[in-house]
Amino acid sequence: MIIAGFDGTYINSDLEELIINRRVGGLILFERNFENLDQLLRLISELQSLAMSCPASVPLFISVDQEGGRVSRLKAPFSAFPQPSCLG
């Protein structure tokens, strides 16, 4: 499975190409993909709708680079996690 990152906060032609023709299995979200909670929910819904409209009709695996501590790509209103070394 290929999981790809992308630029922007909306679906553009490059992202459509990845989903429809390149058949990526998932996408990873970064701070650059987030304006506010409503926008992010709408984006994820639109991404899943696009993936489900393809012949394979398989939903995307959506991930986020949210390691905790200093690496927290999605800020409030999302949960803050401690850095992994604090978890043991």
From TrEMBL:
Biological processes per GO annotation: carbohydrate metabolic process; peptidoglycan turnover
Catalytic activity of the protein: Hydrolysis of terminal non-reducing N-acetyl-D-hexosamine residues in N-acetyl-beta-D-hexosaminides
Sequence ranges assigned to domain Glycoside hydrolase family 3 N-terminal in this UniProt record: 11-88
Enzyme class: hydrolase
Alphabetical keyword list: Glycosidase, Hydrolase
InterPro entries: GH, Glyco_hydro_3_N, Glyco_hydro_3_N_sf, NagZ_Beta-hexosaminidase
GO MF annotation list: beta-N-acetylhexosaminidase activity
UniProt key word Hydrolase: yes
EC number: 3.2.1.52
PANTHER family associated with the record: BETA-HEXOSAMINIDASE (PTHR30480:SF13), BETA-HEXOSAMINIDASE-RELATED (PTHR30480)
Record-stated family: Belongs to the glycosyl hydrolase 3 family.
Entry protein name: beta-N-acetylhexosaminidase
Lineage: unclassified sequences, metagenomes, ecological metagenomes
